[in-house]
Design a protein that fits this description.
alpha+beta; 199 residues; RNA Polymerase Alpha Subunit, Chain A, domain 2
Length: 199
Amino acid sequence: MSVKLKGVPLQYANALRRVCLNGVPVFAIDTVDVIENSSVMSDEGVAHRLGLIPIKTDLKRFNEPAKCPCQSTTGCSNCRVMLVIDSGDTDTTRTVTSAEFSSEDETVKPVSDKIPIVQIAPGQKLKLEAYARLGRGSDHAKWNSANISVLTHTDKQDEYVLTVESTGALSPEQIIATGIDELAGRLEEFKQVVAELKS
């Protein structure tokens, strides 16, 4: 999605670009409890791959862990979602995909059913519990809300085009709208800090 920004100073337009890239919270798998993994890939390899799967995000219903009233290190139903994979036994060599995720919340699931996780052969099995939570790309790339966030200058003064390509966790419209709110909140916090320093 591309939007035209008119009458916006370059520093604000660029700040919005950066927030759209890695400042809007989205879900990503953060903790994995492996129950059984007899595939050729190590537990760490499987966990890393799961972390990079984009997860559909509902910002209205869930809290970021630091802002959740539970203040628990393990989280609660308001700040984390459990997803389960149980490949079961197989008679043929096959690929375990994101379609096999079972989520405790139907709105929080991988953006695609076709993402390969690991290949298992006859006699091999993958069974695990994965926990997704909200985070920001500034902490880890797996929480980036956009693949691309680019700012280009038009021929007119103080006019730019912001182009955002979503990972699928949120729509581009949601990323830009939430990015604007996020930037406004950060600027307000900055004003308060400056006011406190002056006083």
